Amino acid sequence: MICNKLLLIINIDLLTIGSGERHIVVMARVHPGESPASFIMEGFLDFITSEDVILLKYLRDQVTFKVIPMLNPDGVALGNYRCSLMGFDLNRHWRDTNPWAQPGLHAVKAFLIGLEKEHPVDFCFDIHAHSLATGAFMYGNVVSEDQQSEQQAFPKIFSAFAEDFSLSKTNFNKDAVKSGTARRVLGGLFPKSYTLEVSFYNYQKDLRSVPYTQKAYSDLGENLARAIAEYYRKYPTL
Ligand SMILES: [Zn+2]
């Protein structure tokens, strides 16, 4: 549990998986209406905790996952589409969290700052759903030229594992409107910080439109975990 304070009805859960020195942060549902993010999270967690896959046992020795499945549980419980209990779009307030106005987000940010001081954090993934775009894609940060290829390495691997993930739609930007997002603010702490977006309705395959199902979202979560495992196979840290 990360926070239980005034103006937070439901506690924010934190899951710790693995025992490695290097850490990966995975979060979802800062926007409460984006329920596909929870199906992705379900597929990710089911796979990453599997005892049957040898590769995952190796991965869990290298890496510790810090997972926050629901960043805005009050908003979800209230049936809000985008905001918190207090009416804030929390994914525009990471830069200037206030312990009274955004208590959950404030506590999560303090936790992540503390985590970064104690451990190397290789990745941060913040999972969302998109009401206009098709397929799955990522937003990343604009970084210095020597870090650019490192920043682009993960989306490339992910695209090889998920047929619905589009590398061409993945983009790296620093637009002002996104300056308060997790990806932008936490990018200052964890250089490889991404927003994972998925369509609310479909993806393209062989020029056909394939509607997303609960299973397809869950598969995307599993493929995210497979891509992480492949990343550490390719760039081992032990
Ligand atoms: Zn969102």
TrEMBL record:
Task: Give the source species.
Answer: Oikopleura dioica (Tunicate)
Q: Provide the taxonomic classification.
A: Eukaryota, Metazoa, Chordata, Tunicata, Appendicularia
Entry cofactors = Zn(2+)
Where does the record place the Peptidase M14 domain?
1-227
Is Kinase there in the keyword field?
Answer: no
Official protein name in the record: Peptidase M14 domain-containing protein
Q: In terms of domain of life, where is this protein from? A: Eukaryota
Q: Keyword check for Ribonucleoprotein, yes or no.
A: no
Q: Which GO terms describe its molecular function?
A: metallocarboxypeptidase activity; zinc ion binding
